[in-house]
């Protein structure tokens, strides 16, 4: 793809304009709008076209006006970068609820596949394959299985969790205040994956998987780093808004999912 300077030169030539004529038209626009920044000198435009210099937003607006280009046309002149989605995490974020549309929808799809949003939840908790083109290398996705109720009702079975694999150290009791800011861990054991709170004994020999206080699961314990591996800390949670049945001893209770995130 040609540089933006070369493409601008091509557009100018199609219009049959000289560098000096573009300068004159920009000067008229600057006078009409009362903004001297709208004036583009012939020498500066020549350097833009030949040296592929960076353009300010004001310069692009003026050239789009002079060349009769729409917003989409002027943006199409900008070369596509080589950045991966993980390098584009600074994408604009609204301060109020929004329906996801381009480009926010495209960005969201890189992090959350529709397959796991509308598909049937797996029986067992599972770690999804790594996709380094869509996420930073230290983040992974996991799905909480229907038989993993350790974090109910905070995290319901079928939830998709974002795992930060750089944070594997088990926090001590003084590092958190309540269950809402207590770290949640994603574990791998000989019998499969689990998601929940964790405690580590003083000698760092035994790791205990601690269920949520409202869960009907009981503690599980493994030899730390011998029988259990800490994949990472849960950094975010997507819970589907669908009716689910939670075991309540002799009875049952119907619950609905929610969207939540953890720090």
Given as residue ranges, the uncertain stretches (5+ residues, pLDDT < 50) are: 83-92, 243-263
Estimate the strand proportion: 15-25%
**Mean pLDDT over the residues:** 78
Taken in chain order, the helices and strands follow as HHHHHHHEEEEEEEEEEE
Fraction of helical residues: 25-40%
Q: What characterizes the major β-sheet? A: 9 strands, antiparallel
CA-atom Rg in angstroms: 28 Å
Name the shape in a single word.
rod-shaped
N→C terminal distance: 42 Å
How would you characterize this protein structure?
The protein has 263 residues and is an alpha+beta fold. It contains seven helices and eleven strands. It has helices at 4-15, 19-33, 42-51, 57-67, 71-76, 104-111, 114-118, and strands at 126-127, 139-143, 160-164, 185-189, 192-200, 206-210, 220-223, 228-238, 243-248, 251-256, 259-260. Strands 1, 2, 3, 4, 5, 6, 7, 8 and 11 form a nine-stranded antiparallel beta sheet that branches. A two-stranded antiparallel ribbon has the order 9-10. A hairpin with a 5-residue loop joins strand 5 (192-200) and strand 6. The longest helix is centred in the N-terminal third of the chain and has 15 residues, at 19-33. It starts with a helix and ends with a strand. Residues 83-92 and 243-263 have low confidence and may be disordered.
């Amino acid at each position: 793809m040609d540089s933006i300077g070369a493409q601008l030169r091509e557009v100018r030539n199609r219009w049959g304009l000289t560098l000096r004529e573009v300068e004159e038209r920009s000067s008229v626009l600057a006078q009409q709008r009362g903004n001297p920044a709208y004036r583009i000198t012939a020498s500066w435009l020549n350097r833009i076209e030949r040296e592929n210099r960076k353009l300010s937003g004001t310069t692009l607006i003026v050239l789009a006006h002079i060349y009769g280009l729409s917003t989409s046309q002027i943006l199409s002149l900008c070369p596509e970068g080589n950045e991966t989605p993980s390098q584009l995490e600074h994408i604009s974020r609204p301060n109020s609820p929004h329906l996801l549309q381009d480009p926010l929808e495209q960005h969201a799809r890189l992090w959350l596949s529709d397959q796991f949003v509308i598909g049937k939840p797996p029986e067992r908790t599972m770690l999804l394959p790594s996709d380094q083109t869509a996420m930073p290398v230290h983040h992974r996705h996991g799905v909480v299985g229907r038989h993993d109720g350790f974090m109910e009702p905070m995290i319901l079975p079928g939830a998709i969790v974002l795992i930060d694999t750089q944070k594997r150290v088990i926090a001590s009791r003084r590092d958190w205040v309540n269950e809402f800011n207590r770290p949640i861990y994603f574990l791998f054991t000989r019998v499969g994956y689990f998601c929940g709170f964790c405690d580590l004994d003083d000698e760092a020999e035994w790791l205990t998987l601690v269920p949520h206080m409202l869960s009907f699961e009981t503690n599980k314990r493994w030899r730390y780093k011998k029988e259990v591996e800490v994949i990472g800390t849960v950094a975010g949670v997507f819970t589907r808004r669908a009716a689910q049945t939670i075991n309540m001893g002799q009875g049952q209770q119907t619950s609905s999912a929610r969207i939540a995130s953890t720090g």
